[in-house]
């Protein structure tokens, strides 16, 4: 990220940085360090961890990715969720395989997100909070997040008692090397969100996966130190955590879809048939255009959801739930369609192992079922009453227009 975004901030203050600035800075970074290069190395068996750990440390330190959502009192930038989804989206567009989403979610949960100012008091005895934060900043504590815990049966979740967690963290992203897990746990008083410190003694079993951009493992822990980031049984705080997780996942999907659009347009402009670029033919041009429009709509829902969740108080607390569900569903569908269109537009070469299209195709299908399918999220939103948003608007006085939200 442009050094000015992370180093010109007066101590203890929140900088005036827009989501567009975050996007532009990360876009510049990936222009010289393509994320696809790392995915290819994993595909070819040359990168067992699934990502280059030195490049991750660069993103975490020089770029300051892990500090974006951390509050200023802990040395972070204290940016809102609108900037965090922008950062995850750009990393998704580059198909960067590092633990971006888990790191951003961990910082958000530690900061002003799920608990708010001072709410961590009394919950940190079992965890060196300062060390955890420093590890995130330095890129040394590789974070991972579990997939689908929001739809899991509580009894399948690991058990938290007296500051320690025991059980299995199923499908933990980057679980083979992760030192920190963002997950849900069950307690004697209900389900809560937690950060679990993974020690070397943890039993890690890599999961076979078709997705080269998201390695996963089942990690078994016994009395692992853990920090609760929501109060046990506090369903409102837990839902905010789930909404943030869903929005960040949706942002990654929007970014992936945008990456597909860029590859489609680039190829359609240079590949010629009958003496003309194939992009000049309606069948190709319309497919590229429709995919681009779908991306704008999905991005608008993610942006609207982040804005709703960022509000400390709002008249209708269900708004963030509705928008998070709609954003996850729309982004999942959009990335699925975009990755398929990329293969079709690329023609015969799009079906080959050497082409990058199948890397997006695989990643889109993994993310589309994480925590539930697009159809399930649409059903959830409708059952929760999201259709009221169309007639009454967010908070009762403004309508949700995804295109306007995306264009700012």
UniProtKB/TrEMBL annotation:
Domain of life where this protein originates: Bacteria
Cofactor: FAD
Keywords assigned by UniProt, alphabetized: FAD, Flavoprotein, Oxidoreductase
InterPro entries in the cross-refs: AcylCo_DH-like_C, AcylCo_DH/oxidase_C, AcylCoA_DH/ox_N_sf, AcylCoA_DH/oxidase_NM_dom_sf
Gene3D superfamilies named among the record's database cross-references: Acyl-CoA dehydrogenase/oxidase, N-terminal domain (1.10.540.10), Butyryl-CoA Dehydrogenase, subunit A, domain 3 (1.20.140.10)
The UniProt record lists the keyword Hydrolase: no
GO-annotated molecular function: acyl-CoA dehydrogenase activity; flavin adenine dinucleotide binding
Chain positions covered by the region annotation Disordered: 1-20
Start-end of Polar residues biased regions: 1-11
Signal peptide: none
Domain Acyl-CoA dehydrogenase/oxidase C-terminal: 246-373
Family under the similarity heading: Belongs to the acyl-CoA dehydrogenase family.
Protein name: Acyl-CoA/acyl-ACP dehydrogenase
């Amino acid at each position: 990220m442009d050094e000015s975004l992370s180093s010109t901030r007066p101590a203890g203050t929140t900088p005036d940085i827009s989501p567009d600035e975050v996007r532009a800075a990360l876009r510049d970074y990936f222009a010289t360090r393509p994320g696809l290069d790392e995915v290819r190395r994993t595909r070819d068996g040359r990168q067992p961890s699934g990502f280059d750990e030195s490049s991750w440390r660069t993103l975490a330190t020089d770029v300051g990715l892990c500090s974006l959502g951390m509050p200023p009192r802990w040395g972070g930038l204290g940016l809102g969720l609108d900037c965090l989804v922008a950062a995850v989206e750009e990393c998704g567009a580059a198909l960067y395989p590092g633990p971006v989403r888990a790191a951003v979610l961990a910082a958000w949960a530690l900061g002003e997100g799920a608990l708010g100012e001072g709410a961590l008091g009394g919950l940190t005895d079992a965890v060196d909070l300062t060390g955890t934060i420093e590890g995130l900043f330095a890129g040394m504590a590789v974070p991972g997040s579990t997939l689908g815990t929001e739809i899991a049966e509580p009894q399948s979740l690991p058990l938290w008692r007296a500051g320690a967690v025991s059980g299995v963290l199923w499908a933990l992203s980057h679980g083979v090397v992760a030192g920190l897990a963002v997950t849900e746990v069950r307690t004697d008083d209900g389900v809560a969100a937690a950060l679990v410190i993974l020690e070397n003694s943890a039993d890690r079993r890599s999961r076979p996966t078709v997705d080269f951009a998201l390695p996963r493992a089942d990690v078994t822990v016994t009395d692992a130190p853990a920090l609760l980031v929501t109060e046990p049984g506090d369903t409102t705080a837990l839902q905010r955590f789930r909404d943030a997780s869903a929005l960040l996942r949706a942002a990654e999907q929007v970014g992936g879809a945008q990456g597909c659009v860029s590859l489609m347009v680039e190829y359609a402009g240079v590949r010629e048939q009958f003496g003309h670029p194939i992009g000049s033919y309606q069948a190709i041009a319309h497919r590229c255009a429709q995919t681009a429009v779908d991306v704008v709509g999905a991005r608008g829902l993610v942006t609207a959801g982040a804005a709703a969740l960022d509000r400390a108080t709002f008249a209708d607390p269900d708004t963030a739930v509705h928008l998070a569900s709609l954003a996850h569903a729309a982004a999942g569908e959009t990335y699925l369609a975009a990755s398929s269109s990329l293969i079709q537009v690329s023609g015969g070469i799009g079906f080959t192992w050497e082409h990058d299209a199948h890397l997006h195709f695989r990643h889109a299908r993994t993310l589309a079922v994480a925590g539930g399918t697009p159809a399930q999220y649409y059903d959830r939103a409708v059952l929760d009453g999201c259709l009221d948003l169309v007639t009454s608007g967010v908070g009762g006085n403004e309508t949700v227009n995804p295109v306007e939200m995306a264009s700012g």
